[in-house]
From TrEMBL:
Compartments in which it is found: Membrane
Protein name in the entry: Amino acid permease
Upper taxonomic lineage: Bacteria, Bacillati, Bacillota, Bacilli, Lactobacillales
Pfam families: AA_permease_2
Chain ranges passing through the membrane: 26-48, 54-74, 86-107, 150-168, 180-200, 212-230, 251-276, 296-324, 345-366, 372-391, 403-423, 429-448
GO cellular component assignments: membrane
Chief localisation class: membrane
Keywords in alphabetical order: Membrane, Transmembrane, Transmembrane helix, Transport
Length: 459
């Protein structure tokens, strides 16, 4: 049994997908995936429960880890521009089993992200309906909880269904709504920054580190969630006009833009409101209401409702491309790699993935599994950082026109260690669930993937 058999280093010469995405589309895809619940929710939680005003440092710590990891993604995407992101990259350098596990971690991450954001969107939207006097039947307002009398989250199910149908469109069209909503998102954030600057009270920044240095690192482990999604860009490799040039630029560009916005918003937020009062679900809008600007707070809430759509679009788009790539190699059923001849998109994979996400979003209160999203993502980033070192041994130094990760192997080792350190800051319950996730992933590979892999057929 050879679980270290490797995919060909050379990407396929011909793709069935449309190649019409440009650098602007990639940056907006990354920002659409990254900036969502992080800036509208996690900023307040990080300040109130973990780091106080020093939440800005938590974001910077997390950003440094993410940027270092982003460098590894950039070099891989430049030198091996194939669909599947980490799954494809690690299948080339470490072998099929490692690639599958990286892909499995990403499937868990994206699936949970799509479902959880849809549930969060449902909460925002139901709050808006309530404010205008519309009330849904209680049984249809949340996931299954017989004690509370709820059985299905109808709004979450509807939004996942809508996003699923939308993502079946040709890539350029499917991402057009995402691009529009990203600009709306920029407008909402700019409104908060411009107005908030006039209501900063420097006294709210004292004490700056109320929970100590450990609080900063605990906050970093939490806010790492806010940066998840930048790897969505790598999933679009087969649909990019110039992947070797534009994917690295898209990854690094989206991370830098997101980091800048997170830090600015957190500085202003903790300056407007004492950090002890920020443990709310809508801290950005709450800050405006706190200083008496109810109308501005309402505008920010409505903006958040619309812009959270970008996260579900970006994540579902990326998840579908990942599953398409894995099934095309035989590790998942082949019908998932079927391409619609008219739209040139993996329609079957989109519908199957969308229905699974709909089930989780509608039936389960999955907020308790948020840390699982972080730990699966961090595990994948550890593998990616170590993979760059292996990539250099296999393919040598990057050539002219290919992105070069700086300070290899020192920076990749630091990046892997930093990701592992953040994993240790997560709870024991998260580690237990993560262990179960690993067992399930291994079982799928050996019970189905290994035997049906195209590499196995070649052997």
């Amino acid at each position: 049994m050879d679980i270290f058999r490797k995919k060909s280093i050379n990407p396929s010469s011909k793709s069935e997908l449309s190649k019409n995405l440009k650098l602007k589309d990639l940056i907006l895809l990354g920002i659409g995936a990254v900036i969502g619940t992080g800036i509208f929710v996690v900023t307040g939680t990080a300040a109130a429960d973990y780091a106080g005003p020093a939440a800005t440092l938590s974001f910077l710590v997390a950003a440094l880890v993410v940027i270092a990891s982003g460098f590894s993604f950039a070099e891989f995407s430049s030198r091996i521009p194939i669909t599947g992101g980490p799954y494809g990259y690690l299948s080339v350098v470490f072998g099929e089993f490692s690639g599958w596990m990286a892909g499995w971690f990403l499937i868990c991450e994206y699936l949970l992200a799509v479902s959880s954001v849809a549930s969060g969107w449902s909460s925002y939207f139901q709050g808006f309906l309530t404010s205008v006097g519309i009330h849904l039947p209680h049984a249809l307002t949340a996931g299954y909880n017989a004690q509370n009398g709820t059985y299905i989250d109808l709004v979450a199910a509807i939004i996942v269904l809508f996003i699923t149908v939308w993502v079946t469109q040709e890539a350029k069209k499917a991402l057009s709504l995402n691009n529009i909503m990203v600009w709306v998102k920029f407008g909402v954030i700019a409104l908060f920054i411009v107005v908030g600057l006039f209501f900063i009270e420097p006294g709210n920044w004292k004490p700056y580190v109320p929970f100590g240095v450990s609080g900063i690192f605990d906050g970093a482990a939490l806010v790492f969630f806010a940066f998840l999604g930048f790897d969505a860009i790598a999933m679009a490799a087969e649909e990019v006009e110039n992947p070797k040039r534009d994917i690295p630029r898209g990854i690094i560009g989206s991370i830098l833009i997101a980091t800048t916005l997170y830090v600015i918003v957190t500085v202003i937020l903790t300056g407007m409101v004492p950090y002890t009062k920020l443990g709310v679900g809508d801290p950005v809008a709450f800050a405006m209401r706190f200083v008496g600007l109810e109308n501005v707070g309402t505008i920010l809430s409505i903006g958040a409702i619309f812009t959270l759509l970008t996260v579900t679009i970006s994540m579902l788009y990326s998840l579908v491309r990942l599953i398409y790539a894995i099934s095309k190699d035989g590790l998942l059923p082949s019908f998932l790699s079927k391409i619609d001849k008219k739209r040139r998109t993996p329609v079957t994979a989109t519908y199957v993935t969308g229905m699974i996400a709909l089930f989780f979003a509608a039936a389960f209160p999955i907020n308790l599994l948020a840390e699982l999203t972080n730990i699966t993502a961090l595990a994948c980033l550890v593998m990616m950082s170590l993979g760059v070192i292996r990539l250099r041994k296999i393919m040598g130094e990057p050539t002219t026109g290919e992105y070069r990760m700086p300070f290899v192997p020192v920076l990749p080792l630091i990046s892997a260690a930093a990701c592992a350190f953040l994993m240790t800051r997560l709870t024991s319950a998260t580690w237990i669930v993560f262990s179960i996730t690993i067992v399930i992933g291994v079982a799928i590979y050996f019970l189905y993937g290994y035997r049906n892999s195209h590499l196995n057929q070649k052997d």
